[in-house]
Amino acid sequence: MFRRSIAVLVVAAFLGASVPAQKKFDYPKARKADQVDTFHGVAVADPYRWMEDTKSDEMRTWIDEQNRLTDSYLATIPQRESIKNRLTEIWNYERLSAPSKVTDNFYIYSKNDGLQNQSVLYKTTSINDPGTVFFDPNKLSTDGTAALGGSSFTNDGKLWAYSVSIAGSDRSEWRVMDVATGKMLPDTLAPNRYGSFSWMKDNSGFFYSGYEPVQKGEELKANTFFQKLYFHKLGTPQSEDYVVYERPDNKEYFVGGNVSEDGNWLLISVGKGTERMNMVYFKNLTMEKSPILPIIDNLQNSWSFIGNDGSTFYFRTDKDAARGRVVKIDALAQNKGWTEVIPESADTLNGVQFINNQFVLNYMNDASTKIKIYETTGKWVRDVELPGIGSAGGFGGRRNYTETFYSYSSYNAPPTIYRYDMKTGKSTMYRQSKVKFDPNDFEVKRVFYTSKDGTRVPMFITHKKGLKLDGTNPTILYGYGGFNIASTPGFSISRIGWMEMGGVYAVACIRGGSEYGKDWWKGGSRLQKQNTFDDFAWAGKWLIENKYTSTPKLAIQGGSNGGLLVGAVLNQNPGLFGAALPAVGVMDMIRFDKFTIGWAWRSDYGDPTNADDFKVMYAYSPYHNAKAGTKYPATLVTTADHDDRVFPAHSFKYTAAMQAAQAGDAPVLIRIETKAGHGAGKPTSKQIEETADIYGFLVKSLGMK
C-alpha cells in the first residue's frame, strides 16, 4: 500500500537478522474448569467451556483485560502510527463498482470517495453521467457499522428491496423503497438470517427464505434450523406471509427460491450443509395452485440454474463432470433426460451468465480467470482477452442485453472496469481506480510446489521488483482451503502497504478450495482435511527453501476457515514460522456445530458424533492441540464480539489455551473488535485500524527495522 516516502522508509527500512526477545507476559487469568466429555471412548477436556457464555461478568472482565494487554503491547510499537498514516493515505482513493443496468432507463453503481465507511449507491440514466445519490448507507448509523446487504430491483425497476446489517451481523432486516419517490413502503422483514430473495414479475410480492425467530438475547449464539421458503404479498404485514416450501423431514436443509427471468417459473433449490450439492424443484407461476414438481431429488451433485427457453431449463452442474459443464432438460417432458450443451474442460467452471442469448462462462485456469462465450447450442463464439494473471467478474444483465460490464484485478492491479459489447466482442476501458502507488513497482508470479503427498499446488507470490532471494524478506503466507471456495488473484490496498514495507505476499491455493473442481475440494475436506494443512505447511517450506524468506521472517494468516487453517498448522509446525495471525477462526472442532450456523459445516469438517470423523478432527482441533511447554511464535488472534457466524468463543477458548501452553517469550495476544461481526460490512475506519495493528505486530515480531 505504501508509496515511497521518508515516513515509509523509516517504517520499512530493511530487516535485521534476528528478532528481538520479548518480555514474559502476565496474561489475564483464565479459570480452568474440570469439564470433560467422552467421545467414542476418548476423554476430551474442555477447561474453558465457561467462555461460551460470552455475556457473563467473568467473561466480560476477561475480554476487557485481554484488550487492555493487547493495546498496551501494540502501543509500544513506534512504527504503528506511521503505518496507519500511510494506510490512510493510500486507502483514500475513489472506488467504483461496475454499472448494473436495471432497465433500459437507468443504471446503478456504487462509489466510495476514499475513506467513507460504506460505499454509496448512485443512479444514472447514462454511463457517461455520474448521476445522483440513490442510497447512502453511511446515514444509517453515526459510526458506519450499519451496512447494505442484499439488493433486488423489480423487473420494471419501480421498486427496490434491500437488506441492512448492523455491526457485521449475518442477521439482517429487509425493506422496500419506491424508486421514483424514495418513499419507504410499509413492507419490512424483521431481522433474521435470510437467504434467497426474488420478486414476482408483476411486482405483487416476493419469495424469500428464512428461519423462525430465535429467542431474544440468543441471536449471536443460537442454532438455526428448518429454513423455509416464504411468499410476502406486497402491502401486507410479515405475519401474513405464508410458507411456499419447507422440508420438515430434515432440519438441516437449506431452502431457496428464484423466479426465472420470464417470470413464469419458480425454481426451488434444497441443499444440506455447504457441500454445494442440491436438489431442484419447480413450480409453474402462470397456473394458479400449480404443484411443486421435482427435477433433481437427490443430494449427489450441484445444480445451478442459468436460465430457460420456455420449459427447457439450463444448469451448470458437476454431475459426471468434476470440473463442471452446462446441461439442459425439458422440465415438462414425460421422460426427462439431460442433454449436454457445453462439456467439461480441463479448466474449472466457476460460473455462467446468460446475456445476449449467449452463455458467458467464467473458468479458472490454475486459479486465474478465463472467460469464454458460447451459443445456447453449445457452439463456441470467442474468448474474452484479459490483461494478465488475475480475476475477472461481472458480465451481468438480462438475456436480451447486448451491453455488459466486467472488472479485472490482480494482486498488483487495482480493479479496472470494462464495458463489453456482446455483439462485437470489444472490451473498452470504462473506469480505472487511481491508487496512490505505481503498479509497475510490483510483480506477480504463479509458481507450483509439491505438497507432502506429491500433489502439485499453485501459489501466487507478489512483491516489489528487484527482490533479493536471500532469505531475509518478511513474508505473509495466506490461505483458506475450504468450503469449495477458490483463492484467486485480487487487489487489496492493505497488501500494497505490506509490500511497500518490503514484505512478500504469498497465497497458496490449497486443497479444500474449488481451484480444480470437486475432487480438489473433497481432497481437503472431512477425512482428508489434513491434506489442507500439509499443503499450507509445505508452501511455507517452499518459500524458505527458495530463499524468499526464512522461519524468523515468515508469518501465516487466514480468516474463518482460514483461521482454523492457521491454528492447526501452527500447532503442528510451531518451529516453522515467525508469527501467526488466525482471524475469526473455527478453533473448537468438537463443539463447532453447537452454535449459530455451525452445524452446516459438518459437510466440510465431519461430524464429531461419528467415530471416524472425530478421530481426524480431534487430531487437528486447534483448541485441543495447544501443547503445554511448547515455544510458539508470536501470535495475534483477531475476532469480533458481534460475530454470529463463527461464534467468538472459538477464539476466546483458543487464546486462553495457547497462553497457558506458551513456553517461549513470544506474545500470544487477542484483539477483540467491538460492534463488528465476521467481516462483511466492516467500516473503512475499523479496517485501517485493524490492519495497522496487524502490520505493527509483524514489524516487531519479524524483526523489521
Short note summarizing the structure:
This protein is an alpha+beta fold and 705 residues long.
List the helices and strands and how they pair.
Layout: H1 6-12, E1 36-39, E2 42-45, H2 57-74, H3 79-91, E3 95-96, E4 100-101, E5 107-112, E6 120-124, E7 132-135, E8 146-153, E9 159-166, E10 172-178, E11 184-192, E12 197-199, E13 205-210, E14 228-233, E15 242-245, E16 253-259, E17 265-272, E18 278-284, E19 292-296, E20 303-309, E21 312-317, E22 325-330, E23 339-342, E24 348-355, E25 358-365, E26 368-375, E27 380-384, E28 391-394, E29 403-410, E30 413-421, E31 426-432, E32 442-450, E33 456-464, E34 475-478, H4 493-500, E35 504-508, H5 518-522, H6 530-545, E36 554-559, H7 561-572, E37 579-583, H8 602-605, H9 611-620, E38 634-640, H10 649-661, E39 668-673, H11 684-701
Parallel strand pairs: 34-35, 34-36, 36-37, 37-38, 38-39
Antiparallel strand pairs: 1-2, 3-5, 4-5, 5-6, 6-7, 8-9, 9-10, 10-11, 12-13, 13-14, 14-15, 16-17, 17-18, 18-19, 20-21, 21-22, 22-23, 24-25, 25-26, 26-27, 28-29, 29-30, 30-31, 32-33, 33-35
Helix pairs in contact: 1-3, 3-11, 6-7
